[in-house]
Write a structure and sequence with these properties.
With 79 residues, the protein is mainly alpha-helical. Helix content is 53%, strand content 0%. The two termini are 39 Å apart.
Length: 79
C-alpha cells in the first residue's frame, strides 16, 4: 500500500516557492469542531455488518455502534 502512496506522491511537482502573503491564519480553524474517527473493517467483518444492516433496514454505522455498546457492557460487567 505504501508503494502506491509514494509512487503517487513522487509524480506531483512542487514549486520552488509558494506565496502565502495573502493567506489568512486560522481561516478554517474551529475550536469546537468534532471529528469522526475512521474505522477500517476487515472485508469479512464489513460484509457481515453490511448484510446485517440490509436485513434490519438500518445504517451500518448504527449497527456497528450497537455492537460496540454491547461489547462495552460486557466488558464493564466483567470488571
Amino acid at each position: 500500500m505504501w508503494e502506491l502512496f509514494f509512487t503517487f506522491k513522487s509524480n506531483i511537482a512542487m514549486k520552488e516557492q509558494y506565496d502565502f502573503s495573502k493567506g489568512v491564519r486560522g481561516k478554517f480553524y474551529h475550536p469546537d469542531a468534532e471529528f469522526n474517527t475512521p474505522i477500517y473493517l476487515e472485508p469479512e467483518i464489513a460484509d457481515f455488518i453490511r448484510n446485517l444492516a440490509l436485513s434490519k433496514n438500518m445504517d451500518m454505522t448504527k449497527i456497528v455502534n450497537l455492537l460496540l455498546k454491547k461489547d462495552k457492557e460486557l466488558i464493564d460487567c466483567a470488571n
